[in-house]
Specification:
single chain, alpha+beta, 6-stranded antiparallel β-sheet, 5-stranded parallel β-sheet, 27 helices, 20% strand, elongated, disordered C terminus
Length: 799
């Protein structure tokens, strides 16, 4: 959009304002008005006009005064045209010095007005364009200078060398990198041929002379071909890459050369490491390939030794050995060797730790290097040639397994590169040795396991998760009548009787779905099914294990036919013994009953309550049976007490009471002569002992008293207090139970008392007049016959 220029008219005549405003407004100018210099300054503050038409003679502030103030206050570009009607009175020199650009004399025509305005505007436009162009040129020059500065900084600080050469190969400029790498200063090198800085020359045979032409790079080749060239060269400890780039003038002739020199030492070192690692890996792969061959370890080590000695890049003498550690003698034993003479084979066959170089490597666990036969080389012989050694310990998990010994030429310096290679080989050999040892152990264990499995009389069977047989030893063949070939992959249900197969299938399904296995680790009795269809009892345990091919179950089975037969014989013998013991108990009880009928009934009732308490406490069947028998004769010692004392209705004298108290010891004396499977005699002896030691006859306390005696003690108290006595009537069951509650933990065992209370208060236990329980199990939970099955056919002793 075209700019609308602002015109300020400063004149004290209104007619001048009207005429100018009318005609300039039609031309599109924005006209502003002021009638003296002061008003004009105010308008300039807000408007900043492009052109000012200034009347030189005005009241308040004339034109020249306005110019002075205007130049002081404002700096924006503005063309000022003086308007005057008295040209003779005008000081033109002063006007031009104050910035007047032209004059317009009154009266003036429209064309004069428009002409002088347009000329001023065009002049402003031209000035603006020139100033803009100058500003842009200055900006470009500043940027160019900045680029030159940047280029110079890049040139000087580049991480590679840059040299600028003329066509005569003279150095025009060279950066700091090259000064540092060559050691020259600028004054020593600028303006001189580049080949003088390198000092390498080549003859130009084509010209028949010995001109100094640099052989370090290919600048001459670039000169002839006009193409960039590159070459890689060593320089001192560094390795450089030199790229020569020809530069051309407008005639397409080579005017200069740009040399770019990169230090590629680290690249070459990395390449060298890659090559070394590749060689190490190749050697290791070859060693591993040898190690998987089915040959003895000594043969493996011999091939490994010969493989390493065949590598040409190392300064080895194609001579060496591998010793392995004998832990029992703490020595190194020669296992592999190459180019060893007879004397060497003899003296190096066994080397103690710490002796010579190999022994030092074994004892320290460190690489031993020797440039020559020095004082450490303690094993020597007359015809031994000069040489050096690398002795590398073969280590696994900080344990020295052996020593890898390499002969080197005399004076050969220690090399980290060689040690890296030899250490990698030694580590690989250690892995080969350990794997060989472990494989030998595995083979030994497999053989041991196989011999055990095949020689055991127990059948060992393995099935998979489908229930099919995958392993079957000789004992299984003898036990079931099937050979492994006959039973292989067959379902295990084939050796299980029909009535047990459903349970087996359900159990397998539960194990596979939930992981729950009730029989794992347990001894289970079952019946097996032979090939001929006969059944026989077996006992087995099952182990569950996982392999890459799935889940397996291995069972060890024992034919328990003979054991079952022996158990039946033993059970029959036990029954006979039980009957005999029962007879003894019955005899003793009858003997006491004949003397004191009351005591016999009391014993039977105490026996029943004691057995019920024992059941409530969860004691074993064996203990329950012993308590029952002990309770039935716990007062047998009273047989020595005179009848008149036992049935005396009145109060006993102290001597009479002491005689009665002696019945526990008398009972013990009687029963200790009989071989019971329970401590009947001690139970009878202790049945009047109390927890606090106030009982008799021994005054035992707490855990010193047998649990069986503690049970009979409570049962005796409850029965005695709740039953009729010759010297008093029954005190009642409530009084009896109150007695044991009030003295619980003091005189009577806490758990026994709690069990007794549960029997009477929760489970309806009652004493029967008869020692035989003829009621049904529904009437009395603790009836002898009702608990026969629960006690696993417990013997019912008739009181």
């Amino acid at each position: 959009m075209e700019t609308k220029y602002r015109i300020l008219v400063i004149d004290d005549e209104q007619v001048v304002h009207d005429v100018i405003s009318k005609h300039l407004g039609k031309k599109g100018y924005d006209v502003h008005h002021a009638f003296n210099g002061e008003e004009g300054l105010l308008v300039c503050t807000s408007v900043q006009p492009s052109v000012i038409l200034l009347d030189l003679k005005m009241p308040v502030m004339n034109g020249l005064e306005f110019l002075d103030k205007f130049r002081e206050q404002f700096s924006f570009p503005c063309s000022i045209i003086a308007v005057t009607g008295h040209a003779g009175d005008v000081d033109f020199e002063k006007c031009f010095k104050n910035g007047i650009m032209s004059f317009l004399h009154k009266p003036f025509s429209l064309y004069e007005l428009i002409g002088v305005i347009d000329s001023s505007i065009n002049l402003q436009r031209t000035q603006h364009s020139l100033l803009k162009e100058l500003s842009e040129r200055k900006s470009v020059e500043e940027k160019h200078l900045q680029l030159l500065d940047d280029f110079e900084a890049i040139f000087e600080n580049a991480p590679f060398g840059i040299a600028y050469l003329d066509c005569e190969f003279n150095i025009i400029k060279m950066n700091r990198f090259l000064y540092n790498i060559t050691g020259f200063q600028p004054k020593d090198i600028v303006g001189k041929p580049c080949y003088e800085t390198v000092g390498e020359y080549a003859a130009d045979n084509a010209k028949g002379g010995m001109e100094k032409v640099c052989s370090f790079c290919k600048v001459a080749e670039s000169l002839m071909t006009g193409e960039p060239t590159a070459v890689e060269r060593p320089m001192g400890k560094n390795f450089l890459k030199l790229t020569t780039i020809p530069l051309f003038d407008k005639d397409k002739s080579i005017s200069h050369f740009l040399e770019v020199i990169e230090d590629i030492t680290w690249q070459k070192e990395a390449e060298g490491k890659i090559v070394r690692h590749y060689q190490i890996q190749g050697t290791i792969n070859s060693i591993l390939q040898i190690s998987i061959e089915p040959i003895p370890l000594k043969d493996v080590l011999q091939q490994v030794l010969e493989l390493v000695l065949s590598i040409p890049r190392f300064s080895f003498q194609s001579k060496g050995s591998i010793h392995l550690v004998d832990d029992t003698t703490h020595t190194l034993v020669l296992c592999a060797h190459h180019n060893y003479s007879e004397p060497l084979l003899t003296i190096c066959d066994v080397i103690p730790f710490g002796r010579c170089l190999c022994g030092l490597a074994a004892s320290t666990g460190e690489i031993i290097h020797a440039e020559t036969v020095d004082e450490r080389h303690t094993i020597r012989y007359d015809t031994m040639a000069p040489h050096g050694h690398y002795c590398i310990p073969i280590v696994h998990n900080n344990k020295v397994l052996g020593v890898f010994n390499m002969y080197i030429t005399e004076g050969h310096k220690r090399s980290s590169e060689e040690e890296e290679f030899l250490s990698a080989i030694a580590n690989t050999i250690s892995g080969v040795i350990v794997r060989n040892q472990r494989n030998a152990e595995i083979r030994e264990r497999e053989e041991h396991f196989r011999s055990v499995v095949e020689s055991t009389k127990n059948a060992i069977i393995t099935i998979n998760s489908s229930g099919n047989i995958t392993f079957w030893n000789k004992a299984a063949e003898n036990m079931f009548g099937y050979t492994f070939d006959e039973i292989r992959s067959a379902p295990v249900a084939k050796i299980i009787p029909e009535r047990f197969r459903k349970g087996h299938i359900e159990g397998m399904d539960r194990v596979l779905k939930t992981g729950e296995a009730r029989v794992i680790g347990e001894m289970i009795e079952l019946f097996g099914l032979r090939k001929d269809g006969s059944e026989f009892p077996i006992e087995f345990s099952v182990a569950r294990w996982k392999a890459s091919t799935g889940i397996y179950f291995t069972a060890v089975l024992v034919d328990i036919t003979k054991r079952k037969q022996a158990e039946e014989t033993l059970a029959e013998s036990f029954e006979n013994l039980r009957k005999a013991l029962g007879g003894v108990i019955q005899t003793l009880s009858m003997a006491l009953e004949a003397k004191d009928p009351y005591t016999a009934g009391h014993q039977n009732r105490v026996a029943d309550l004691s057995r019920a308490i024992a059941i409530e406490m969860g004691l074993s069947h064996h203990q329950i049976e012993g308590i029952r028998m002990a309770g039935a004769i716990h007062d047998v010692g009273k047989i020595w007490v005179p009848s008149e004392i036992l049935s005396k209705p009145g109060k006993l004298h102290e001597s009479e009471f002491m005689l009665i108290k002696n019945h526990s010891f008398v009972g013990y004396e009687i029963l200790s002569t009989v071989e019971f499977p329970w401590p009947i005699d001690k139970i009878v002896l202790q049945h009047h002992e109390k927890l606090d030691g106030s009982g008799y006859p021994q005054g035992l306390k707490g855990e010193e008293i047998l649990i069986e005696a503690r049970i009979i003690c409570v049962a005796d108290i409850v029965e005695a207090m709740s039953s009729h006595r010759p010297y008093r009537p029954s005190l009642g069951m409530d009084i009896a139970l109150e007695e044991i509650v009030s003295n619980k933990g003091i005189l009577y065992d806490i758990y026994v008392v709690d069990a007794c209370l549960r029997l009477f208060k929760e489970k309806g236990f009652t004493f029967k007049d008869s020692p035989k329980y003829n009621q049904s199990p529904r009437q009395n939970k603790y009836d002898t016959k009702a608990n026969t099955n629960k006690l696993n056919n417990a013997v019912n002793i008739k009181a």
